[in-house]
Amino acid sequence: VKIERHKWPDEKKDAKKSKLNRRISIAVLSFFMFLLGMGFSQAIAPYNTNQESNKFSEIEKILTEKWYFGKDVENLDTFIPDNGFYGMANLSAIDPHTSYLSAAEIASYTEGLSGSYVGIGIQYYESDNGILIVDRVFEDSPAEIGGMMAGDIIFKVEDKLAADLDINQVSELVRGEADTPVTLTVLRDNKEVIIKMIRKQVIHSSFGEQLTPEVALIELEQFGETTAGEVENYLKRFKDSKHLIIDLRNNGGGYLNSVIEITSLFVGPDKTVLITENKNGDQYVENTLNKEAYTFDDITILVNGGTASASEVLTAALKYHLDNVSVVGVKTYGKGTVQQTQFLSDNSALKYTTAEWFGPDSGKIHGVGISPDFEVKLAPIIESGFMAFPEGNTYQKDQVGEVVKYVQEALDFLGYSMDRKDGYFDEATHQAVVQFQKSMNIEANGQINEDNYNLLISKTVREYNQNKAKYDTQKNYVLNQLGVK
After folding, report:
1. 26, 29, 87, 409 — which has fewest CB within 10 A?
2. At a CB cut-off of 8 Å and minimum separation 6, what does 10 contact?
3. Do 338 and 351 form a contact (C-beta atoms < 8 A)?
4. How far apart are CA 123 and CA 27, in angstroms?
């Protein structure tokens, strides 16, 4: 199911419709994953100033001392000024990538890009309905060993209901020291499943696999501190392969030096990776490092709408410098700006845009994206994801609604007979809903409420993840072109 590029906190607040859009490594604070994809981050020393805005100080004093609801706010002395700083840096109408980050948020960002963490080894997203659905279980992780599956709904962490926790609290409860126990209760096909695990170090920035003696695959989750080294190790293993597939789908970016080093592994030294341009129009060229290039007969890059920032840099650079690279999927996000992280005196930070970057051919990426050489789409419900279910609503035969269209797309994906997928709740939709409800052992009244809808999301996610060999049309297209059955 589509997971959109990772969002910074300020962008997340502006999102109005869920597209299964909050992907998170459960052992990492949630803000890391939101921050990860939003561009190259260069940290510079704290900036101190003795100047204060009198108006800001006056408002802060009034709210801290006299605001009625302040009695219910934990850490009010930091909550009030932080909200002021968020507002000051909210330039989303012009630049959605500039924002203020609290000390906790920037600490999570820095920690997350290390590429490893102590946890259980899953990714999940939070729908706008507030349910947490496991999207991926990492190989040989505590979660895989414990029996967790993609599509599981996180119901409890230890004895605490996930519904009573925000996404940060869930993450913090699951995190902990290595070799310590943690228990999660998940919902699977409307039944509770208790999963006991022992936390351990998890590395999650990349994955490699020798698909056949001649075809190798590298999936990049992010461009973190360890990613280039991981990629180089995979390339050493795959050096005898003729064909390489690089999967950058839903990779929202990361560190600039990471993507430069990875590009170097494919094109060799002193090649242009990207060109940056500052506000004065001055341009600077970033070149590859002194690395020996690994060569293949052909390289295919898989991309989608979640492919952004550093992922687009790598795609553009390989396309420009190598004549055996093809891009398959759908158009990338188009995130072509560079951000700098300015630390402040209290360890919070201002992340602001300092430049726009262009491909090695000076081609514009920002707001444009990269179009694939071969457009291949996933099933509509996988490509688009689910919208949020309107709170308190129930849908039944002869009603019309946008959410009904998503229900129809999901039911069609799951193999139920559908006459239409335009949002009109017809007889075929009614019968399909009844059949689905019976399969879930719930009341088969042919109506869709929020609980039914959440079950449908969970079932769709699990079906896709457990049968990717069947449903991943983009990867299958490449394998078919390579003659892999």
Report:
1. 87
2. 86, 89, 90, 92, 96, 99, 100
3. no
4. 9
> Mean pLDDT of residues grouped by 10 in the chain (485 residues)?
34 37 30 32 46 70 83 85 78 81 77 71 78 84 92 93 85 90 93 95 84 96 90 95 97 91 98 95 96 97 95 98 98 92 86 92 96 97 88 95 96 96 97 96 95 91 87 97 90
Do 396 and 446 contact (CB within 8 A), yes or no?
yes
**Please, what's the b/e burial string for 10-45 (b: 16 or more CB within 10 A of its CB; e: otherwise)?**
bbeeeeeebbbbbbbbbbbbbbbbbbbbbbbbeeee
Q: Is 107 helix (H, G, I), strand (E, B) or coil?
A: helix
Q: What CA–CA distances, in Å, run from 427 to 374, 377, 416, 420? A: 38, 29, 13, 10
Task: To the nearest 10°, report the CA torsion of 146, 151, 152, 155.
Answer: 150
> Which residue, among 273, 250, 277, has the nearest Cα to 353 in the 3D structure?
277
Question: Among candidates 9, 347, 389, 15, which has minimal Cα distance to 167?
Answer: 9
Give the Cβ contact number of residue 61 at 10 Å: 11
Return the ∠ at Cα 484 (arms to 483 and 485), rounded to 5°.
115
The terminus-to-terminus CA distance of the chain in angstroms comes to: 24
CA distance linking residue 223 with residue 119, whole number of Å = 20
Domains of the chain: 116-202 (2.30.42.10), 205-379 (3.90.226.10), 389-468 (1.10.101.10)
Of 128, 124, 109, nearest in space to 184 by CA: 124
Which DSSP string corresponds to 423-476? SB--HHHHHHHHHHHHHTTS---S-B-HHHHHHHHHHHHHHHHHTHHHH-HHHH
> Is the alpha carbon torsion for 164, 166, 170, 176 positive or negative?
negative
